[in-house]
């Protein structure tokens, strides 16, 4: 891949990261985790979106998303999950971005086209309140990325913010509610919700 | 924030090294599950191992929230094992360093990269092995793990583990400890293959070992000259090495003996190769070995085995060949015994290993001999049987009235007596013919002489049992040349004495002597018998009777070496006491039935009326029983009938291994089978239209059959295809058989027998071929079946060629898009040269799935990508960013029409090969070599070519075709200007026929979603079912611009009221069609557009509430969709 192409695929990556930041904020907003006063209306890709006004929250989301950039550029990221946990650290709801980037064909894509496609995700997210489950009290949330392989340590300062983790998963296959799909070159992105299946064993209290 | 991160990472940093180590493999497992998305594996990875993501997941904690690390019990255990393993490893490493420094630094690290796990009791012990591994640079694992262990060492396995080997070994080689010892003594890493655990191998001698001395008439006596020379060389060399070994370390005597056996094995291998025609010109032993190795590579895709064989290939040093022992010890020329099972081997006598299996199989099959003998007979005695035919037609009626006399002549224990006819010493000894005489005695006796029969030895008995009955039994192998010779002599004699001869088999015939008034039949029979024994050295028995039945029954009394006459007045008397079971046509089942009704003899049978017999046993059987019990037989002696079917079947030794590239051995096998059938067709000078593939599939609970490599208890399945024009073309046969085989959708491991049969035979004689001209071929309604078939078969081929992953996820359209890439895809398979790069269709290339593309790129040395990049760049400049996929489709359509035309042309041209084999369009276009290759199929003169068709060809193709003609004939072209109407018409019909053709054989690989509008729209439009027609209509109305199923379904909901469900069969068919449509769509979309799937799923549910058809479709598809989604996303869709 020549220099120009590298730049171009970098652009796709940057767009995606930017989009993720907005989308994650939207998810947190839609979930109603924080009072709506903690967000402010903004316009992104010509859609009305929310932005966290609390600096720490904003910084967390921003660092999470931008920290992913090096991994995305390497094509390592398979899924990005926004996970909401109950008090017992049991996930109650997961928003999954499943993404496949074709880096080799990234060069040929027009910026506008991709933005147009991503916009529909934001639109859909803003109206998907009905899909989500009410949150339990004292919940917390985090962003988890599933990589195809573990990267070498310390590739950049930002990515150092990401740490390896073991994520508790459900014993049973989750129930999936698709939200939005984008199937195009170079980016294939699926956004769907995962909820524990009804037969999921109730979390054992002793574990906490 | 920092703090929380810090605490987290410190928790992990301790196991940093470890984590690093295990990550790749861990990731691999999961990655594979996602990528390949094989149903069970991906499911299990989600279900059973909730922590499988461990170590691979990154998490970003929100510092504003509480951070707590939970320590799950499982995790603790996991860490414990990790730490323990690491500790053991460290211990091992330190020990290894000290020992290698301390004892001898000069030790070669022969086990570098080998990591063993010792299972159970071994000699040398566990600890010793550990010491060896340490000393020679290998690793020793205390706990089994799929990722770190490379070989499992054990000397004995419990039966449960043997049965469930895969679960136990996880695909790793299970090797005897001698491997390590031998490797050390050889001072290099030996191939593990010969050291595979005995239990996992069959210890019978192989068919190949038996095949080996085939070139000598009596392998038993003659010494295999070829093997003598190298043998000594081998043994000496090996002896040298084993002496070395003994010096080096404590190798046991048996070991060296064993390795000597290996050498012998290798020599047999040489013999085997010598018998195969391709190899004959290669006489140097090492050449043969390397070619053998090549075969090994072909049939064996296991990486490690490959390693071994390539290692072998590179080394021309002869003793090393014993590493890769793949042959069994054959009976040596001193005649001590037939075979001693060698310790381990791969089964070369099954389809697993032997690339020439089919050929050898038929070369050595008695049934094959009998089957093809008839054909030989027909040719040889054609004239005389013709005379018989004429006579018959005139006299048939008259004959029935007249008293007829028929002689039945049968050679006594033909297969034995022919073999021993020149070996007087065996004449009064019990002798049996069998393909092998190994000490295990699991081979079946095919024929035994009368002294042996006196002991109770019978055909079909295992040698083992026969030897129990008669310990002195001599087993001799077949001698097919002698059989042929004797059979010819036998019939020569018969034809000399009688004009009306009906050959039943190579050793059995009926003579109608009614016309020969002045000769006593008894005298004639004895004359014939005398002549036979004088000429052939074999005795014959004769039975004389009024009908064929009586003659045959009389022979039974006459045997051996006698004759018996049942006069007309003695018939009843004779039959009275005859057990029903002896009647021809009464098998064990019928006999049992009869005995249940207390009928033991023909006399008792005669008491029952014809009507009640027919009621109890069916019209035909009843009729037969009734007349046979009275000695009546309406058949008359006729010449050999034209065979109604020709085919070949292999149901011995058929084993295929389940691998992802499994198609290669299977395809090869099918090809060989087709070749055999092709030869038989040619031999009989017939061509056929209906092709039936029969498969024997292991019954679910059937165990490994008692007969070694036999087929055991099997389910029989068969499918057939009828083509419009009869053919014996080998390529057509191969394509059809491949397609049929694919249509079974079988697990190849279960296949125990394959047969290909050709029926609807026509004479291949060019004189009566007038009816099958181009016009008849084109006007035939089903003409395009053939075209479509090629298409389909190709799709199947592509599917087989690429790995399973692509099949699961790739979507059908991609298959079709890769359609025109055939030459290049196939090249891997057929070893033909790649088409030059400039000939590749770029559009097709671009639409190839990336895996396939990169594979192709590899074969072109990486230049392909450059080319594509370049092209992409160009495209951008042209701002031609329109739908690539549409382009692809268009090109396919294009090429399809080529194929039709080409087909037409070729058919017209091929006077010799009636059935045109359709050259693949892209072959014709891209590889000029192919065209030249086909030149011999071309008509010699252009006058035989339908010029109108030629003119319709695209310029490029026409040039190619014309290029294939001799130059001086070219000017004849362009004389005619008739419009090729029929070709066009034919083309229009195609889509419909295609669909029908698919249905005919009950599967469809083709993409219903290919094209614009997609194929299903057309299919539904003409389906005749109102609902389907409606769907097609809706598509045209709303979805043409955006071909999404959800759009169609959405509109269907609003119009569902007007749907009228068909009933009965029509409904079933429609349900099937809709299901197929949806399935294909789901598969297409599941990867990239789960939203659409969800939408369709919900719409379908809504439709289900309103329409019976959709209700059933929903019921059928709902589990399918859920499975599909869970395959790709690890969960099921939530149902609203």
Automatic annotation (TrEMBL), chain A:
Main location: nucleus
Cellular location(s): Nucleus
HORMA domain residues: 10-193
SUPFAM superfamilies named in the record: The spindle assembly checkpoint protein mad2 (SSF56019)
Keyword match Nucleus: yes
Any GO BP annotation: DNA damage response
InterPro entries reported for this sequence: HORMA_dom, HORMA_dom_sf, Mad2-like
Gene3D superfamilies, sorted: HORMA domain (3.30.900.10)
TM ranges: none
Keywords of the record: DNA damage, Nucleus
A GO CC term attached to the entry: nucleus
PANTHER family (UniProt xref): MITOTIC SPINDLE ASSEMBLY CHECKPOINT PROTEIN MAD2 (PTHR11842), MITOTIC SPINDLE ASSEMBLY CHECKPOINT PROTEIN MAD2B (PTHR11842:SF10)
Protein name (record): HORMA domain-containing protein
Organism: Thlaspi arvense (Field penny-cress)
UniProtKB/TrEMBL annotation, chain B:
Cellular component, GO, one term: nucleus
First-listed, main subcellular location of the protein, grouped into a coarse class: nucleus
UniProt keyword list: DNA damage, DNA repair, DNA synthesis, DNA-binding, Magnesium, Metal-binding, Nucleotidyltransferase, Nucleus, Transferase
Basic and acidic residues bias locations: 244-263, 804-819, 908-918
Enzyme type, top EC level: transferase
GO BP terms, alphabetized: DNA repair; error-free translesion synthesis; error-prone translesion synthesis
Family: Belongs to the DNA polymerase type-Y family.
Localization, UniProt: Nucleus
Highest rank taxon of the organism: Eukaryota
Protein name from the UniProt record: DNA repair protein REV1
Keyword Nucleotidyltransferase: yes
Residues the record lists as binding Mg(2+): 410, 507-508
GO molecular function: damaged DNA binding; deoxycytidyl transferase activity; DNA-directed DNA polymerase activity; metal ion binding
Cofactor: binding comment: Binds 2 magnesium ions.
EC number: 2.7.7.-
Keyword Amino-acid biosynthesis among record annotations: no
Segments of this protein annotated with the region Disordered: 1-26, 221-291, 303-351, 804-834, 906-926, 967-987
Function: Deoxycytidyl transferase involved in DNA repair. Transfers a dCMP residue from dCTP to the 3'-end of a DNA primer in a template-dependent reaction. May assist in the first step in the bypass of abasic lesions by the insertion of a nucleotide opposite the lesion. Required for normal induction of mutations by physical and chemical agents.
Biased composition (Polar residues): 310-324, 331-345, 821-834
Skewed-composition ranges (Low complexity): 1-16
The organism of origin for this protein: Thlaspi arvense
Entry cofactors: Mg(2+)
BRCT domain span: 108-187
């Amino acid at each position: 891949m020549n220099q120009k192409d590298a730049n171009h695929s970098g652009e796709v990556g940057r767009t995606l990261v930017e989009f993720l930041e907005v989308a994650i904020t939207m998810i947190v907003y839609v979930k109603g985790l924080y009072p709506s006063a903690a967000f402010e209306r903004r316009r992104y890709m010509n859609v009305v979106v929310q932005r966290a006004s609390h600096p720490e929250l904003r910084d967390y989301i921003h660092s999470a998303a931008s920290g992913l950039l090096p991994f995305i550029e390497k094509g390592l990221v398979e899924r990005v999950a926004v996970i909401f946990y109950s008090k017992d650290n049991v996930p109650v709801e997961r928003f999954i971005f499943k993404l496949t980037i074709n880096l080799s064909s990234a060069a040929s894509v027009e910026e506008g086209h991709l933005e147009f496609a991503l916009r529909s995700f934001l639109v859909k997210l803003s109206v998907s309140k009905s899909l989500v489950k009410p949150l339990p009290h004292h919940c917390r949330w985090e962003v988890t990325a599933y990589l195809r392989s573990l990267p070498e340590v310390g590739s950049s300062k930002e990515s150092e913010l990401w740490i390896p983790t073991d994520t508790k998963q459900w014993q049973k296959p989750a129930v999936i509610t698709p939200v939005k799909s984008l199937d195009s070159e170079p980016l294939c992105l699926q956004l769907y919700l995962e909820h524990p299946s009804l037969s999921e064993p109730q979390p054992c209290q002793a574990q906490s | 924030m920092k703090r929380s991160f810090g605490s987290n990472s410190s928790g992990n940093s301790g196991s940093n090294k470890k984590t690093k180590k295990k990550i790749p493999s861990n990731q691999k497992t999961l990655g594979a599950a996602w990528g390949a998305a094989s149903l069970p594996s991906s499911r299990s990875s989600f279900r059973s191992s909730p922590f499988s993501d461990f170590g691979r997941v990154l998490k970003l904690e929100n510092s504003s929230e509480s951070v707590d690390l939970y320590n799950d019990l499982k995790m603790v255990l996991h860490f414990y094992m990790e730490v323990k393993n690491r500790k053991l490893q460290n211990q091992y490493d330190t020990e290894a360093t000290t020992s290698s420094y301390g004892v001898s630094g000069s030790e070669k690290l022969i086990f570098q990269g080998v990591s063993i796990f010792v299972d159970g009791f071994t000699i040398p012990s566990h600890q010793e092995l550990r010491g060896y591994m340490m000393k020679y640079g290998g690793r020793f694992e205390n706990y089994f793990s799929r990722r770190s262990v490379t070989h499992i060492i054990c000397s004995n396995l419990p039966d449960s583990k043997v049965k469930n080997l895969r679960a136990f070994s996880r695909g790793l080689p299970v090797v005897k400890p001698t491997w390590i010892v031998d490797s050390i003594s050889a001072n290099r890493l030996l191939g593990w293959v010969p050291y595979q655990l005995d239990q996992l191998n069959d210890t019978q001698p192989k068919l190949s070992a038996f095949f080996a001395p085939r070139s000598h008439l009596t392998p038993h006596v003659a010494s295999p000259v070829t093997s003598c020379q190298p043998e000594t060389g081998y043994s000496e060399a090996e002896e040298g090495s084993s002496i070395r070994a003994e010096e080096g370390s404590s190798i046991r005597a048996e070991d060296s003996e064993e390795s000597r056996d290996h050498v012998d094995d290798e020599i047999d291998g040489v013999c085997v190769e010598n018998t195969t025609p391709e190899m004959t010109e290669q006489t140097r032993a090492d050449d043969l070995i390397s070619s053998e190795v090549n075969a090994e590579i072909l049939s064996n895709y296991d990486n490690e085995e490959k390693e071994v064989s390539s290692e072998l290939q590179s080394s021309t040093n002869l003793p090393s060949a014993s590493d890769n022992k793949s042959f069994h010890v054959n009976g040596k020329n001193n005649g001590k015994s037939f075979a001693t099972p060698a310790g381990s081997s791969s089964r070369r006598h099954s389809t697993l290993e032997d690339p020439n299996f089919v050929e050898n199989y038929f070369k050595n099959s008695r049934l094959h001999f009998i089957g093809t003998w008839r054909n030989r007979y027909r040719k040889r005695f054609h004239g005389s049987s013709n005379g018989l035919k004429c006579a018959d037609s005139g006299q048939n009626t008259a004959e029935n009235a007249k008293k007829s006399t028929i002689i039945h002549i049968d050679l006594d224990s033909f297969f034995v007596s022919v073999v021993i006819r020149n070996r007087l010493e065996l004449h009064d000894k019990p002798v049996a013919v069998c393909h092998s005489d190994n000490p295990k005695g699991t081979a079946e006796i095919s024929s035994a002489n009368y002294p042996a029969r006196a002991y109770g030895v019978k055909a079909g008995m295992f040698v083992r049992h026969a030897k129990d009955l008669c310990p002195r039994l001599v087993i001799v192998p077949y001698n097919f040349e002698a059989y042929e010779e004797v059979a010819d002599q036998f019939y020569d004699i018969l034809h000399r004495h009688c004009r009306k001869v009906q050959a039943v088999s190579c050793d059995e015939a009926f003579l109608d002597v009614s016309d020969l008034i002045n000769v006593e039949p008894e005298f004639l029979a004895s004359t014939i018998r005398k002549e036979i024994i004088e000429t052939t050295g074999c005795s014959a028995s004769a039975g004389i009777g009024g009908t064929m039945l009586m003659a045959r029954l009389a022979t039974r009394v006459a045997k051996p070496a006698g004759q018996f006459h049942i006069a007309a007045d003695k018939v009843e008397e004779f039959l009275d006491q005859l057990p029903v079971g002896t009647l021809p046509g009464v098998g064990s089942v019928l006999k049992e039935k009869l005995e249940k009704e207390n009928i033991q003899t023909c006399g008792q049978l005669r008491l029952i009326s014809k009507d009640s017999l027919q009621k109890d046993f069916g019209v035909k059987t009843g009729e037969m029983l009734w007349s046979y019990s009275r000695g009546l037989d309406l058949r008359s002696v006729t010449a050999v009938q034209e065979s109604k079917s020709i085919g070949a079947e292999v149901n011995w030794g058929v084993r295929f291994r389940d691998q992802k590239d499994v198609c290669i051995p299977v395809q090869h096998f099918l090809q060989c089978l087709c070749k055999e059938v092709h030869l038989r067709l040619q031999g009989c000078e017939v061509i056929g239209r209906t092709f039936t593939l029969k498969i024997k599939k292991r019954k679910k609970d059937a165990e490994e059959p008692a007969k070694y490599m036999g087929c055991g208890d099997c389910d029989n399945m068969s499918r057939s295809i009828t083509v419009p024009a009869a053919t014996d073309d080998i390529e057509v046969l191969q394509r059809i058989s491949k397609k049929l085989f694919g249509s079974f959708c079988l697990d190849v491991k279960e296949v125990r027998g394959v047969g290909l049969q050709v029926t609807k035979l026509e004479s291949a004689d060019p004189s009566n071929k007038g009816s099958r001209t181009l016009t008849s071929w084109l006007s035939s309604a089903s003409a395009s079946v053939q075209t479509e078939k090629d298409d389909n078969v190709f799709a199947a081929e592509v599917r087989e060629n690429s790995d399973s992953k692509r099949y699961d996820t790739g979507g059908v359209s991609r298959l079709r898009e890769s359609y025109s890439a055939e030459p290049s895809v196939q090249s891997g398979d057929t070893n033909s040269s790649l088409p030059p790069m400039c000939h590749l269709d770029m559009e097709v290339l671009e639409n190839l799935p990336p895996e396939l593309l990169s594979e192709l790129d590899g074969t072109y040395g990486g230049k392909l990508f450059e080319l594509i990049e370049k092209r992409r760049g160009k495209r951008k400049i042209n701002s031609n960013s329109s739908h690539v996929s549409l382009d692809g489709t268009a090109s396919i359509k294009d090429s399809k029409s080529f194929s039709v035309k080409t087909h037409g042309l070729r058919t017209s041209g091929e006077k010799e090969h009636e059935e045109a084999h359709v050259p693949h369009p892209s072959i014709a276009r891209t590889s000029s070599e192919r065209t030249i290759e086909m030149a011999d199929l071309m008509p010699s003169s252009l006058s035989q070519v339908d010029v109108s068709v030629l003119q319709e060809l695209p310029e490029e193709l026409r040039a190619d075709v014309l290029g294939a003609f001799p130059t001086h004939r070219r000017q004849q072209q362009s004389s005619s200007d008739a419009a090729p109407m029929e070709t066009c018409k034919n083309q229009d019909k195609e889509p419909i026929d295609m669909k029908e053709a698919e249905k005919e054989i009950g599967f469809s690989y083709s993409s219903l979603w290919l094209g614009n509008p997609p194929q299903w729209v057309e299919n539904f439009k003409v389906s005749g079912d109102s609902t389907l027609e409606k769907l097609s209509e809706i598509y045209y109305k709303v979805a043409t611009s955006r071909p999404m199923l959800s759009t169609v379904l959405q509109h269907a909901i609003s119009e569902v009221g007007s749907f009228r469900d068909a009933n009965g069969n029509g409904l079933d068919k429609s349900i099937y069609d809709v299901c197929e449509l949806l399935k294909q769509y789901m598969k297409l979309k599941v990867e990239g557009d789960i939203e659409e799937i969800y939408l369709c799923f919900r719409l379908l549910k809504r439709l289900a509430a309103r329409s019976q058809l959709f209700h059933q479709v929903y019921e059928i598809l709902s589990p399918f969709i859920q499975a599909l989604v869970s395959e790709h996303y690890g969960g099921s869709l939530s149902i609203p």
